[in-house]
Write a structure and sequence with these properties.
Blueprint: H1 7-10, H2 14-67, H3 72-82, E1 89-94, E2 100-103, H4 108-112, E3 116-124, E4 132-140, H5 142-177, H6 179-189, H7 210-257, H8 262-293, E5 303-305, H9 306-316, H10 318-324, E6 327-331, E7 335-337, H11 340-357, E8 363-370, E9 376-383, H12 417-427, E10 432-437, E11 440-447
Parallel strand pairs: 6-8
Antiparallel strand pairs: 1-2, 1-4, 3-4, 5-7, 8-9, 9-11, 10-11
Helix pairs in contact: 2-3, 2-5, 7-8, 8-12, 9-11, 11-12
Keywords: ATP-binding, Cell inner membrane, Cell membrane, Kinase, Membrane, Nucleotide-binding, Phosphoprotein, Transferase, Transmembrane, Transmembrane helix, Two-component regulatory system
Protein name: Sensor protein
Enzyme class: transferase
Length: about 450
């Protein structure tokens, strides 16, 4: 079960963690290497001591065999004279009948030592009674053991010291290496809502940090653009709302300035109702765009004929088309599962725009065709004035009008029609299309299969 904790308590230091891990790794590696080395040295020393013990016993055998020619007195004299050369050792010799012939001085240190090796062997002595003597040679390896223990502690100390040095060095290097991150953090703290044009940069950029810097700067570009669009949108909304509100207030003030008959008041209320309906339509469109921006997805039903949907929309615009002196034709068809009300709304906005800007006597064409990427294009074509190339990318922006001098004389269109078309395309996982050249303009959108 996970327990929650404050961010400051749950965080950790990268330099501390890396230095600790590298120190432990260093100590483990050195510990293993030193342990193996110490074990091999110990084995070599044991082999050397065993060989030395055999060589000493052979030497004693040779000395006793030669001295035995002169009898027991000569043997004892020879062993006694050689005793000083047998430091940290003890030699004992017994006759064949078990009686003691010779024994070195028995030191207390030799008795108490835990690192002694005893080797018993027989020495042939033909000139002495019994023909041989038995010898016991005891060697004390306490010094070698003490030396090995001392070296073991030295190796342990070296291992710990190496771990401490690695930890200190790693922490210093990691802290120094993370300095660019602290610089980036300082630059990030300097960015505020009023200073969105700042971007991250390093004097000596690290290769590993470049993708993060590029992604952050790209995110700041998108954020700055979104803030600019939001500010422009707010300004446009205020502008669009100001006109109908001013009209409502002015007409109401005029109506209240003097006594009026019922017919005049009815005319004023009817005019106010039109303005309020315009305000309601504007607010509804804004709410729809807000839902689309929050990621709303189209509710697809059963596959329907896109040409049939276009025909229904055209019937709704039949009177407008007739007044504008414009004909209409539907080319192509496709069966696709779509959100029918949304697609009809997008088609209605496109047909309405094409009708307003189409040349009198021309024909508006609703074209439906599959795309190479598996989507289906629905576009409306009209003949009229060519849209400037720099205006085409902004056609689907909110409240954008390519030609404000001849648009919306009846004040019924507030510049959200194509923005709604773009939102409906996104809700169907599609995109918008717009092109204008040689007096022909094609504006539409694509729909992805469910």
């Amino acid at each position: 079960m996970k327990t929650s904790c404050p961010e400051a308590l749950c965080s950790h230091s990268i330099s501390t963690r890396l230095s600790r891990k590298l120190a432990i790794f260093t100590m483990v590696v050195l510990g293993v290497l030193f342990a193996v080395t110490w074990g091999m040295v110990k084995m070599i020393l044991v082999e050397r001591n065993e060989a030395d013990l055999v060589a000493r016993c052979e030497l004693i055998t040779d000395v006793v065999s030669r001295a035995a020619i002169g009898g027991e007195t000569a043997v004892m004299a020879q062993l006694l004279s050689d005793a000083p050369m047998r430091a940290s050792t003890r030699l004992q010799v017994w006759r064949a009948d078990g009686s003691k012939l010779y024994a070195d001085y028995e030191s207390e240190a030799l008795k108490r030592s835990e690192h002694t090796v005893v080797h018993e062997f027989s020495i042939p002595t033909p000139t002495l009674a019994g023909g041989e003597v038995r010898a016991r040679y005891t060697v004390d390896y306490s010094r070698d053991a003490e030396l090995g223990t001392r070296w073991a502690w030295i190796l342990v100390g070296v291992t710990l010291a190496a771990g401490a040095l690695v930890a200190t060095g790693t922490r210093w290097h990691v802290t120094r290496g993370l300095r660019p991150l602290r610089d980036l953090a300082a630059q990030t703290r300097a960015i505020s809502a009023r200073d969105l044009d700042r971007r991250l940069a390093l004097v000596d950029p690290a290769e590993e940090l470049l993708p993060w810097i590029e992604q952050f700067n790209a995110m700041m570009d998108r954020l700055q653009l979104a803030v600019q669009q939001l500010e422009a949108f707010n300004a446009d909304v205020a502008h669009e709302l100001r006109t109908p509100l001013a009209t409502l207030i002015g007409e109401t003030e005029v109506a209240l300035s003097r006594d009026r008959d019922a017919a005049s008041l009815q005319d004023t209320l009817a005019s106010n109702l039109e303005e309020m309906q315009r305000l309601s339509a504007l607010v509804n469109d804004m709410l729809f765009l807000s839902q689309a921006d929050r990621g709303a997805v189209a509710r697809r039903g059963e596959p329907v004929s896109l040409a049939e949907l276009a025909r229904q929309v055209c019937e709704f615009h039949e009177a407008t088309l007739e007044d504008a002196g414009v004909g209409l034709r539907i080319d192509g068809d496709a069966q696709l599962a779509v959100d029918v009300p949304l697609v009809k709304r997008a088609l209605s906005n496109l047909v309405g725009n094409a009708t307003r800007f189409a040349a009198r006597g021309s024909t508006v064409v609703v074209a439906i065709a599959p795309e190479a990427d598996g989507q289906f294009r629905v576009q409306v074509e009209n003949a009229g004035e060519t849209i400037a190339p720099d205006h085409l990318p902004r056609l689907f922006d909110r409240f954008f009008r390519a030609d404000t001098s001849r648009c919306c004389e009846d004040a019924q269109h507030h510049g959200l029609g194509l923005a709604i078309v773009a939102a409906i395309a996104r809700m169907h996982a599609g995109r918008t299309v717009a092109e204008s050249a040689a007096g022909t303009t094609r504006v539409g959108f694509t729909l992805a299969a469910a």
